[in-house]
Specification:
Layout (H helix, E strand, L loop, with lengths): L4 H6 L10 E3 L4 E4 L4 E6 L2 E2 L7 E2 L2 H6 L3
Antiparallel strand pairs: 1-2, 2-3, 3-4, 3-5
Length: 65
């Protein structure tokens, strides 16, 4: 599932309120500032910090800008 640009523009990281980036390879929304990846479950972003996974430096480099 790809998230359209309008929706992505209004979504924010629940932890830092920063911009999210869609990472299509893993179907996740990524916050670069917090180094967190939020899952997308049945086409619905799960923007709960406790449900996010931490990203390694290597993973973060693979996420498109």
């Amino acid at each position: 599932m790809a998230i359209d640009k309008t929706t992505l523009a209004i979504l924010a990281c629940p932890k830092c309120k920063g911009k999210l980036t869609y990472y299509g390879d893993k179907d996740e929304l990524v916050c670069r500032g917090e180094r967190l990846a939020y899952p997308i479950d049945e086409n619905i972003p799960v923007l709960i910090a406790d449900k996010a996974r931490e990203l390694s430096s290597e993973e973060l480099e693979k996420v498109p800008s």
